Amino acid sequence: MRTLWTFLVQVLNPDWPCRAAVAQVLAEQAAQEHDRPPHRLSFARTMQHLHAAAPYLWLFAGRLKARGLYQLLLSWIARDILPYRPNRIEPRAVKRRPKEYALLNRPRHEMRIALLRA
C-alpha cells in the first residue's frame, strides 16, 4: 500500500500530465470495488473528482485519513454511472482532412454499419 501512496503523491502533483491515466486506473478500481461496469463510469466526472480530492490526498499521503479519503473518492467515482445507450457508435471520420481519418463521404448510418461489420 505504501508504493500506491508514493505513486499517488508523485502523480497527483498538479504539474504532471499523467492525471488522465490515473483517472482511468481509479475508475477501473472503483468499478471493481463497487460492482459497476467500467465502461459506464464517467471519465469527465472521474477527472473532476480526482481534481477535487488531489490536494487532500497530497496533504494526507501516507496517513490513515488518506486511506479513508481514497475510499470516499472511489465511491464518488462509482456513483457517476452513464446512462445505457445501446447502438451508440460514432464513425471516426471528419468531413475535411487533417488526413488522420477517412473522409466522411457516406451517410453516418452506413458508416456505422461498416464499422460494426469490421
How would you describe this structure to a colleague?
There is one protein chain. The chain is mainly α. It folds into two domains: 2-79; 86-118, no CATH class. 58% of the residues lie in helices and 0% in strands. It has helices at 2-11, 19-33, 43-59, 64-79, 108-117. 10% of the residues are buried.
Which descriptors would you attach to this protein?
118 residues; mainly alpha; 2 domains
Number of β-strand runs: 0
What is the count of structural domains? 2
Structural Rg: 19 Å
Largest sheet descriptor? none
Output the number of helix runs: 5
What is the helix/strand order?
Answer: HHHHH
The protein's oligomeric status is single chain
- Parts with pLDDT < 50 across at least 5 consecutive residues: none
Let me know the average pLDDT: 80
The assigned structural class equals mainly alpha
How much of the residues is beta strand, in percent? under 5%
| Portion of residues within helices | 55-70%
Instruction: Kindly report how far apart the N and C termini lie.
Output: 43 Å
Report the principal-axis shape: elongated
